[in-house]
Amino acid sequence: MRARLDPLFTQTLLKIGNGQEKTFEDDLIKIPAPLAINDPMAEESLDELIKVIYPDLASLTEVSRSINRAILTTKNCFVDEVNTKLINEFPGNLVEYLSFDRVENPSHEAEYGDLINSLTPSGLPEHRLSLKENAPVILLRNLDPTEGLCNGTRLICKKLDKNVIHAEIAVGEFCGKSVFIHRIPFEPPTDEQYPVPYTRTQFPLRLCFAMTINKAQGQTLDSVGVYLREPVFSHGQLYVAMSRAKTSASVKLLIKPPFNEHRLNYTRNIVYTEVLQAAEIV
């Protein structure tokens, strides 16, 4: 466990992960106050969380300072909310890359073109990808695993050309390796419903100032923000989010109260104990 040098935090994480943390009304658990933003109902509470995790954006042009921190949240729409705020504040000139979205039947282009542009299905890059040099990004496809380009690899944008992005692998065995990223075709997941079949050709990248909790599995971070605009919705998500941090001092949660605004720092923890029992974990 990453937090083994912080025994009290480790104990809290184990209780959350095993579903043994005390529950209250509506099956909520209470997060220790030192781990949470003080006034989650305030309009500027997200800005406060951002300042805790990214206190000095100008200094984050140094790779080691920008890549080892992130804000984790439940859904891509919340990821985009945070990433948009941060890329606008990040130093440098903004470069926008628009995807080429092509519907399978050309006769549907005029009717559905704008709608398709507005969609960002799970696992696909945005139609409008806004980047700056030195900004952190995460790879969305396995391009060349033998060279370190795997789905989930974190990189730093080094040079933004029209048809190629020069980047540097920021973590792992290939840390420091220079790579070139090109546009590739994507198709939306077959288990999701869309008006018409289509293909999106775009750079396989997403900003990773923020990322989904699921995408953060396996990552170790020096500073972790957890943005719970909505409660977690699947087994083990809260544990995964909080356990990316090494100590209690390096994690901060913003919990937007979903039920009663007077019950601050309460949130849902979904744990299927029968799954853990079958795996002989508890």
From TrEMBL:
Report the InterPro entries cross-referenced here. Answer: P-loop_NTPase, Pif1-like_2B_dom
- The protein's organism comes out as Striga hermonthica
Q: Which CDD domains match?
A: SF1_C_RecD
Q: Which residues form a coiled coil?
A: none
Question: Pfam families from the entry?
Answer: Pif1_2B_dom
Domain DNA helicase Pif1-like 2B: residue ranges: 114-158
What keywords tag this UniProt record? ATP-binding, Helicase, Hydrolase, Nucleotide-binding
Recorded GO MF terms: helicase activity
PANTHER family in the record: ATP-DEPENDENT DNA HELICASE, PTHR10492
Q: What is this protein called?
A: PIF1 helicase
